[in-house]
Write a structure and sequence with these properties.
The complex is a heterodimer. In chain A, the strands form 7 sheets. A 5-stranded parallel sheet of chain A has the order 3-2-1-7-19. In chain A, strands 9-16-10-11-12 form a 5-stranded parallel sheet. Chain A is globular and about 65 Å long. Chain A is α/β, with parallel strands linked by helices. Chain A has 11 helices and 26 strands. Chain A folds into 3 domains: 174 residues, FAD/NAD(P)-binding domain (3-Layer(bba) Sandwich), CATH 3.50.50.60; 116 residues, 3-Layer(bba) Sandwich (FAD/NAD(P)-binding domain); 86 residues, 2-Layer Sandwich (Enolase-like, domain 1), CATH 3.30.390.30. By secondary structure, chain B is α+β, with helices and mostly antiparallel strands. Chain B has 2 domains: 82 residues, Alpha-Beta Plaits (2-Layer Sandwich); 54 residues, Alpha-Beta Plaits. Chain B has 5 helices and 8 strands. In chain B, the strands form 4 sheets. Chain B has a two-stranded antiparallel sheet. A two-stranded antiparallel ribbon of chain B has the order 2-3. A two-stranded antiparallel sheet of chain B has the order 4-5. In chain B, β6 and β7 form a beta hairpin. Classes of the chains: A alpha/beta, B alpha+beta.
Chain lengths: 427, 144
Amino acid sequence: MSSLKYVIIGNSTAAVGAVEAIRKNDKEGRIVIIGNEKYHVYSRPLISYLLLGKTDEARMKYRGEDFYSSHQCELKLGRTAQKIDVENKCVILDSGELESYDRLLLATGSSPVVPPIPGLDKVEKKFTFTTLDDAKALDEALFEGTRVLILGAGLIGLKCAEGISKKKVEITCVDLSPKVLSSILDDQSSEIVKKHLEDHHIRFYLNRQVTGFEGNKAILNDQTEIPFDVLVLAVGVRPNISLLKEAGGRTNRGILIDDHCRTSIPDIYAAGDCCESVDVSSGETKIMALLPNAYMQGECAGMNMSGVDYIFDKAIPMNAIGLFGKHILTAGTYTGNTYFESDDQNNYKKLFYSNNRLNGFILIGNIEKAGIYTALIRERTPLDTIDFELICQTPGLMAFNRETRAEKLGGVMNVSVGSTIGISRAE
Amino acid sequence: MKRVYVNEKWCLGCHLCEYYCAFASTGEKDMARALKDIKINPRIRVEERNGISFAVSCRHCTEPLCVKGCITGALSKSGGIITVDRNKCIGCFTCILSCPYGAVSPSEDGAIQKCELCVKTHEGTPRCVSGCPNGAIVFEERGE
């Protein structure tokens, strides 16, 4: 087979997953990466940590300085793909250049939603918060005492709040939902997090929405007026699907892919935040714009693009978020019966299960060994094969039977064990 | 590659592996002095219940979910060993959320910690293995 040419649109997590997978199988083919940002691949979720001073641009690099050279990638940064010519298998760039492909990956990510609120166009200092340039621009607009209004009390809005708190700004957060982090928390846990944030001087107007802006004043639907200096829009993100949609590929809110990360157009793959995929904890097809899934979809796409039959069918929603020292780990879907524990230290644990399967969980505070719960969800482990009562209290391998434990900790356990001279414990 | 394997049949539940693990990362010569008055936070942990005990540490998985899910790129696998760049890690705990063995934990300084087979502290057999008095923890090749 003659050497293949891989073109990847996007230069973030899913692209890296794909490059690393392709190079496992194909050391010869050309890889061309088209990215609209001018940066070496960096970790997007770290932009709030950058403002907080917990990282810097050098450490934000998601892969080392030599990543592109060691993986033989040709970079076209600061360029935008305008159109896919499916018939001639090429991508048309904003520069007018044509980039032909044998295999194409769309790792185009998502873009912040800008809500259609009257008067928003007249607000001078408004920012979104998903890219490094966003973070730098926002940072420059902030000084001690600056009044910041954040629209959205979700993951992006709250991480932004934490990040900018370092500058001693006044933060007010408005959300349509009656609770903070409404996509990943239930009522009770959300209340714990809200109180914690209020203790760090973030003011909330929940269950309300901005109906209009009058200069530097937001008017809420209950007539509350909030004056501000800087506005941050964090109401959500929308998958970047237009390239594939205009090329005639199947899309819904996101690009539709199968378990090989193939789109409906031959030789075009998609991965990461631009896609919809099946959440195995609920069986529903949805957008799961999460970094781990982006990497694993990118990897899956890369494997298949380079000729290896590879399936990724274990995507679940999962979030690890820290806010002012409090850690929140969640995964899966919150349906079914619940197991619940909490204490006066605001440690919180809720597990959701039904039909002999763990569907989801919320942990706040004590997050030890949370991955054992995640694995039960991801693997759809039948709960009657483990000591479910024990694992609810204490996540651990102890809840599995002896054979499973031996397999997990010993690999091939029945062949010669290194040392057999010890004292055997009573069976 | 050589990995740490555990056989619960031989585990005495003495927790010495945890002490040796904590000792390994101190860089000191004398264990008693190094750990005096310290509450240890080892990377290998013994689970015990109803007379059964066994130690759990990183399996250095062939398909490591912690590495694939790491949001900073601090976790990486090289030469079969998964290590963490503590300078890059910002302690988001996505790896703790991902590890099916519960083998990643928070460290004192906010970054995560995990077994790195003692590659950063000394050469040869990991301390938990050499310190196990009953051969319940071994370091060997078992064909993959």
